[in-house]
Design goal:
Blueprint (H helix, E strand, L loop, with lengths): L4 E10 L2 E2 L1 H9 L5 E3 L1 H5 L6 E3 L5 H7 L2 H4 L5 H16 L13 E7 L4 H12 L10 H5 L3 H10 L5 E2 L7 H14 L5 E8 L3 H10 L29 E9 H6 L6 E10 L13 H15 L8 E3 L8 H12 L8 E3 L2 H4 L6 H15 L1 E2 L10 H4 L12 E2 L4 E8 L3 E8 L4
Parallel strand pairs: 5-6, 5-7, 10-11, 10-14
Antiparallel strand pairs: 1-2, 1-8, 1-9, 3-4, 7-8, 9-15, 12-13, 14-15
Length: 423
C-alpha cells in the first residue's frame, strides 16, 4: 500500500530573500531580487543584471565551520547547504549522532556545480601547479557535491543522490523524493536543487541572446513573464529545499504540515513534434500535466492556482496554451496563474525548488503572490485566459489545490500537484 506524503520543512536562498521569513515577505510584497551586476558590465555582457542571493558572512558562519569555509568558493554548494539545513531544522529534525539515520535520505540536484572552482583549477593545472589545487576541488565540483555536503551534516543513511534535468531539476527532485517515501523505501527525504551564479554560468545564455539587454538601468523591471514587452529571461541563482515525510511519521511527531504531495509526473517530448534541445514539444508538456493530474487522483477543475514555469520568453503563450488544453479550461474558468521568475529571474537548476517553496507557502499561508511586470499582458495570453486570472497584486484567499510545473532544456518536463493538508 502506497504511503501518503507531506511536506514538513522548507528552506530557501533566493535573490529576493534568504531564509523562509524573508522570502515569504518578499513574494507577498512583489519585491524583486534582480540587480545590476558590475562584473557583467566589465565583461561586456549584453545583459548586465542577474539574481544573486544576499548571503552575508554572518549567514555563512551560521551554517559552516571555519574549516568548511576554507577555500570554499562553489556558490551552489553554499546556497544548497543553507537552504537544505534550514529546511531540516524547520521540520524540527535533528542530525544523526553516532549512527546514520537509515530512514532519511536526500535528492538534491544541480546543473553545473563549482564553476569558479573549475576555473581556478584549470589555471593552476595549466601553470603546472596541480599540487596547489587544495583538498576540496573534487567535492566542490562533482555534481553530487551538494548532496554529499548535506548528507554528512545531517547523517542520512538512506538514498543520497543528485539529479540533473536543467530547469526541471528541482521539481524532479521533489517527485523522486516523493516516490521514495510513497513506495515505503524511506520515511523522510530532503529534496531540493541549487545553481551557481556568475559570468561563467550565465555567459552561454548571453551568447544565445535569450537574455534582455534593455533593462540594465532598471533591473527590477527586466523579468516580464506573460508580458507583451518580455524580451528574454534574467539569469538567477540560489537554492530551495523541502523536507518530505510520510504522513504517518509527521503525525506521530506532531510536525507542522505545510502541504500534501498528491502526485505528479515526469516525461520528455523526445525533441520531436516541434520540440528541440531548447524548446518543449507541446504535446509532451500537455501529457505531463494531464498525467500528473491523473496520478494525483483529482479533476482538472479542482486546481485553484498554477505556479507556472513562464520564463519571459516567446514560449510563455505556448505554455498557457498547453495548460488550457490539458485542463480544458479557458477564459474566466481558468485557474489563477503566476510566475516567480518576475521577482527572482530564472534560477536555472534551482528554479524548480525555489518555486516549489513559494508554491507551498501559498498553500499553507493562503495567498497568491503577484505576478509582477505584466501590466501589458501579451495578447496571445489574454486571448486565452481572463486577465484577472493573472494577479498583479497580492490576493489573500485560501487555496486547496495547486499545480507546479517546470520545463527544461533537453525537452524535459516535470509537474507536481500539491494540496493543502486537511486533517
Amino acid at each position: 500500500m502506497r504511503k501518503r506524503v507531506v511536506i514538513t520543512g522548507l528552506g530557501v536562498a533566493a535573490p529576493n530573500g534568504v531564509g523562509v521569513p524573508s522570502f515569504l515577505d518578499a513574494i507577498q510584497h512583489g519585491r524583486s531580487g534582480i540587480a545590476f551586476q558590475p562584473i557583467l558590465a566589465e565583461l561586456k555582457f549584453s545583459c548586465q543584471i542577474g539574481g544573486i542571493p544576499p548571503i552575508t558572512e554572518e549567514i555563512k558562519q551560521k551554517y559552516f565551520t571555519d574549516l568548511q569555509l576554507r577555500q570554499l568558493n562553489s556558490s551552489g554548494i553554499i546556497y544548497g547547504v543553507i537552504a537544505g539545513m534550514e529546511a531540516w531544522h524547520n521540520a524540527g529534525l535533528s542530525v544523526a549522532a553516532e549512527q546514520p539515520d537509515w530512514d532519511s535520505g536526500i535528492v538534491f540536484g544541480t546543473g553545473i556545480l563549482g564553476i569558479d572552482k573549475f576555473r581556478e583549477s584549470i589555471y593552476k593545472v595549466d601553470e603546472g601547479q596541480v599540487r596547489r589545487l587544495g583538498s576540496t576541488t573534487v567535492v566542490q565540483t562533482m555534481t553530487s557535491g551538494v548532496s554529499a555536503y548535506l548528507g554528512g551534516m545531517i547523517g542520512c543513511g538512506n538514498q543520497l543522490t543528485a539529479n540533473s534535468s536543467a530547469c526541471a531539476t528541482g521539481t524532479e527532485a521533489l517527485l523522486l523524493a516523493y516516490e521514495r517515501i510513497a513506495s515505503g523505501q524511506a520515511t523522510r527525504m530532503l529534496a531540493g536543487s541549487c545553481s551557481d551564479h556568475g559570468p561563467y554560468i550565465w555567459g552561454g545564455f548571453d551568447a544565445m541572446r535569450v537574455t534582455p539587454y534593455q533593462f540594465n538601468d532598471a533591473p527590477e523591471r527586466a523579468s516580464r513573464p506573460l508580458s507583451a514587452s518580455a524580451s528574454g529571461f534574467v539569469p538567477g541563482s540560489g537554492a530551495g529545499a523541502l523536507v518530505l515525510e510520510s504522513l504517518e511519521s509527521a503525525l506521530s511527531r506532531k510536525a507542522t504540515i505545510y502541504a500534501e504531495v498528491l502526485g505528479g509526473h515526469l516525461n520528455s517530448g523526445g525533441q520531436r513534434g516541434g520540440g528541440s534541445m531548447t524548446a518543449p514539444n507541446a504535446l509532451g508538456v500537455k501529457r505531463c500535466i494531464q498525467q500528473a493530474i491523473e496520478q494525483a487522483g483529482i479533476q482538472p477543475n479542482e486546481i485553484d492556482v498554477i505556479d507556472g514555469h513562464l520564463t519571459a520568453t516567446i514560449k510563455d503563450s505556448a505554455e498557457v496554451t498547453a495548460w488550457c488544453e490539458a485542463l480544458d479550461r479557458r477564459g474566466a474558468d481558468f485557474p489563477y496563474i503566476n510566475s516567480l521568475k518576475a521577482m527572482v529571474g530564472h534560477c536555472l537548476s534551482a528554479a524548480g525548488s525555489i518555486e516549489c517553496v513559494a508554491a507551498v507557502l501559498e498553500l499553507h499561508e493562503g495567498f497568491i503572490y503577484p505576478s509582477i511586470n505584466c501590466e501589458d499582458l501579451h495578447p496571445e495570453v489574454s486571448n486565452l485566459i481572463a486577465p484577472k486570472k493573472i494577479p498583479q497584486q497580492l490576493i489573500e484567499q485560501p487555496i486547496q489545490v495547486l499545480a507546479k510545473a517546470n520545463f527544461g532544456f533537453g525537452d524535459v518536463n516535470a509537474c507536481v500537484i500539491l494540496k493543502k493538508f486537511n486533517s
